[in-house]
Amino acid sequence: MTSCPQIIALSGVVKTFGGYTALRDLDLAVAPGRFVALVGPSGCGKSTVLSLIAGLGRPSAGTVAVRGVPVVGITPAAGFLFQRDALLPWKTVEDNVTLPLVLRRMPAAEMRRRAADWIARVGLRGFERAYPHQLSGGMRKRAALAQTLVYEPEIVLMDEPFSALDVQTRNLMEGELLALWQGSGTTVVFVTHDLEEAIALADEVVVMTASPGRVKARYDVGLARPRDVERVRFEPEFTALYARMWADLRDEVLESYARANAAG
Amino acid sequence: MRGPTRPVDRRAVAAIQAAIVALALVLWEAGARAHVVDPFFVSQPSQIVETLGSWWQNHYILRDVTVTLEETLLGLAVGGVLGIALAVILAPTRWLAAIFVPFLLLANAIPRVTLIPLFLLWFGLTTIQSKVVSAVALVVFVVFFATYDGIRDVDPTLVASVRVLGAKPLDVMRHVLLPSALTWIFSSLRSAVGFALIGAVVAEYFGAQAGVGYRIQFSESQLNTSGVFAGLFVLMVLVFVINLFFQWLQRRLVVWKPVD
Fold first, then answer.
1. Which residues of A touch B162 (CB under 8 A)?
2. pTM for the complete prediction?
3. What band does A3 get if pLDDT is binned at 50, 70 and 90?
4. What residues pair up with A192 in beta bridges, in sequence order?
5. Residues A201, A228 contacting (CB under 8 angstroms)
6. Are B157 and A90 in contact (CB < 8 Å)?
7. pLDDT, tens digit, for every residue of B25-62?
8. Terminal CA-to-CA distance of chain B, rounded, Å?
9. What value of ipTM does the predicted structure carry?
10. Which of B157, B165, B166 lies at the smallest CB-CB distance from A84?
11. Residue A127 contacts residue A139 (beta carbons within 8 Å)
12. Cβ-count burial of A216 within 10 angstroms (0-12 exposed, 13-18 middle, 19+ buried)?
């Protein structure tokens, strides 16, 4: 590869779990500051890609590099927003948001200032002392978002972060995510099985095959920014992109579905 | 409406419980007085109360309880710290756990009460050390296995999440594993109280100059069944009070749990 300015580069990645091959010959490059969505049928290894980038797992073959450096431990430049709730239930919103700064041994005053700033930016002012179980699903997601963004990671990995929310909350959160991301220069890799969400949010959509996962196709999304996630769905370009991507994705979904039925 | 989910009326429950206790005491007393049962073997409530009264006047109760309580709490503290420390070392490291947990399971299978005479031999017949060691031997396993299971039971997503947030292994222990195991540790400490007391009392029973176990053994040697029952009553109250304390402590420390 020539010196193309990729912040994330996976090449020839294979990942097996026991006898099961989750990823095979996966190549993926992400340019800095891009919002990339990864879509594919369930079980195609989308989440595995994220955990390899984060350094939570190692590839069975191939290389994973961040800023040209192979990933060997946890990637310090990355933040991860999990599908499931990952706030610590025994810490208040404030303590959860402060935690990554505590782990970085940041001075106390700076820590408080930054945490307060991010709690306000995700709209949780007044809930600093609440425990996660006292919050709604949407509010917990906001807190988790603040926890992930408070240490300003260069890369944010998101694993179907809004899939458990109701449709209204979800649209709201997508809008707020874009507003927070806009102009931040942060690179986002966003895993979802929802094509509409992928197109509405991303600069680039990568469609993966049914397992073992590979990259099937990639599309640039030329929709203007800043975007209104609810309005953008009615633009002709959105609909056209959706139709093309769905044609790709449908085959993979049908294949994965047929295999699941054959196996079951 | 009287549905099946009607909440339990606490006062009614307490009243019924009091009635059951009163009835049992009355039957016991009446049975002993009418010589349906022989009070020499089973004593009778009035005699037990009398014994407790005379113990109180002779300052036996306060002294015995102080001695036994000291041994019990020391045993609980040392055994608790040891159990938690062992779990903290073994639980997060697979290969350490694989090597050492089988040994602990084996040691746990020994009826440790039978070792108490040995502890008396090693640490002194009338010393406090032998009593504390006996209590520790019973407590440490209860707390270890609870903490170990608590740490093993932690949600892997939480561990992955804090690792990405920048946590090193010690940070993971402090911010995730221990807090997560805390509920398990507390419930184990509450049963450990009973075990610590058994260890201390049985050790006293085999050799001591004071303590509730000594008092019971002394009464037995005099064929004084009222003394035995009076001693057991004192122990029962003691465990009950320590348990209440731990319940209170747990409510203070585990504030993040939803109220069920």
1. 88, 99, 103
2. 0.82
3. very low
4. A39
5. no
6. no
7. 999 999 999 988 888 888 999 999 999 999 999 988 99
8. 23
9. 0.90
10. B157
11. yes
12. middle
